[in-house]
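re: ur question from the group chat, yeah i did fold both. here u go
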Amino acid sequence: MALTFNPIPVSYRKMSDQRLTDRILRMKKKLGKKLVILTHHYQRKEIVALGDYRGDSYALSKIASEQDAEIIAFCGVHFMAEAADILTSEKQAVYLPNPLAGCPMADMAEITNVMHAWRQIKEVLPDTRIIPIAYMNTAADLKAFCGQNNGLICTSSNSTGAFKWGFRRGEKVFFYPDENLGVNTANLFGIPKKEQIIWDFRKRKLGGNTPEDIKKAKVILWKGYCHVHTTFTAKHVKDMRKSYPGIKIVVHPECPEEVYDLADAQGSTAFIVKYVSEQKPGSTIAIGTEVNLVDRLAHENPDKKILELSGQTCAMCVNMYRTTLNDLAWCLENYQDIEPLRVRDEIKSDARIALARMLEIKK
């Protein structure tokens, strides 16, 4: 039985997985349409099995915005539950079963650092229209910043559409916090390397750039990354092709550029799920993304050989893994005594604008 760092009662920690599952199912039946459970693709198999909906952050944001349920249990990480709260009504309550489930990438873009960068960029380019685009993996205040400054949010599902949206409205795009997704999307647009610059938030003066660099740039990319997807290397791709001739390789766009370019297909978690399901029986497929999704796809596609791209290296999102049956059972059985996740009203209104734009654009 998996344990968690979430400070739930010891009694819940000691229950068997079967008993926890039975209690969760009992609460689902008791609450009926009042409850909806959303599960991200990276969650444990046993959590995904109990969800009403599964998907990537884009799909789950859209689903959350369409729900009438009073209680939304979001089995994901903190920024996802925040987005659900922003997009739902005041009568609805969003719960994160394990409140410690965060995102290291999101933490790399902190509001004071982004505001500092924005001020410096505007000082260099006072008359240039710059469109901020925040990846979904950001805190609510950074989503609000985009809403306040004519920007929007994107996910790995629709980053291309977001860039198109941005360049129709401005001369430059300021993208944060994932450098790799930004580089891979900029490359799709054919933006030359000399017009892509990286803003290193640890360097107080112009993010390590010169004023001339900033003036020439079409895209300004934050120096952030996903620790899971930077596990994968070009060597992993080449080794897989050598070991398994004819193998198909699909990777997430948070992977480094050299991995992205060597793969057969690239896309969000939802794209990866669809890609695998569409391959012929007997296919061998290596996947460059979080191990829980790879493992689940292997179980769901027994007619195919599913491999982790990095081989023996475990590409796991420990924050996604935090949410256990213990957490979900305790959350559902005690929701009336738990404080739901709430985004402050002054942040929510501007963040909702940016998220609504995300939901309106084409992928």
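okk and heres the other one u asked abt
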Amino acid sequence: MTLLERGRVGGRVRYGAPARRCAVAVRERPSGYAARAPGRDSCPISERELAEIWEGQRFPPQALASVDGQPLTVLYRGLRGRGPGPDFRDAVIQTPADILRGDVELHLRASDFRRHGHDRDPAYDGLALHLVYRADEGPQTLLAGGRRVPLAALAPWVERRSEEIRRWLERPALWREPCRSAPSRLGDAAVAAVLDRLGDIRFRRRTAELRRSLRGEEPEEVLYRAVMEALGYGGNREAFRLLALRLPWRGLRPALLSVPVEERVAVALEALRVAAKGPPPLAWRAAGLRPGNHPARRLEGAAFLLAPHAEAGLARGLAAALDGDARRAVAGLTVREGRALIGAARALELLANAVLPFFAAAGGDGQARAMALYRALARPAAYGPVRHLDDALGGAVRVDARRQQGMLFLRRHYCTQGRCGSCPLS
């Protein structure tokens, strides 16, 4: 049983095997356990313990250096990865010559990177550092894109001080995000006000982007492209944006008007599929997506959403979202044809990121109404990228769509920029 399995170190872990080892599995660690000096191929810690050491920065600065002898200073250790991909995202690490920004992948042995197929996986091309216990390869790690990143191994330092492994794991974390104490320091109402303010800033910035587009383009085209891009959120945003450029509304709408009403959905879907095939074919991401987020289903949802607005136009049709309350607006964009092609969560995304910012950008009577509806929207779903903020706040603050947008603002401008400690919740 490892130290983690005894409950001495808490926190959620994402590794499947309960205690993976380099070569020797440590079954029991009695209360008086002192880590023995490992053999050449063994590791005195598990991979999940290595992750806990990194997350809590439970090691002295001098323990971290690249295999080729360069000292490394952690400016920000990054956020736990969720799902496939690197273990920690958006870290900032200083070397004597440069500042590295990117992801951190952890293994017990450097060769595990190849053994797990990461050297052929573009998802790891954003690595800034490969942290291992034992460097059985080196001095750098080769990525799928051909770039090499520094390899750092803890074994040389640890094996001279093996007793300290136990103390590293048992001591409290030496660092935690300041936002974890924000509710107790600032109060729940103040935290909510910060998220509201940042959520409004994000909405106004999106509105400003669309307003700039409206100065030189047809309003229908601007709205169509915004809707298509929002349909692609969750892994295929760029692909849907390119699809909207390949098949603009001014090309799709005449095709819909040329056929009877009952045939328009089928015509829209076929036109979207043909445009997606290219050449060149669009690069869809499908691996790791929930069925509802699969691009094939999103294309069906787009066809059902767009086809009814061929007669009146997209802007006039979607303006109905402004006529009722938030629940009615969501229902107006939800598409269910035997299954949810556009569910309530996706409808909320469309409203918050495309429809309401568009009508706010268009000005007139719809501007104030769009902002009021935005502030009344429920939370679409808990985003993986801001899970760390959910965990930090611990349910102290109710999160709606507006506040989740505020969380996204924090993540983009602070969490992933090495500015943790200077954000409004610090």
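fwiw on the second one: DSSP finds 17 helices and nine strands in the chain. The two ends are 37 Å apart (CA to CA). idk if thats what u expected
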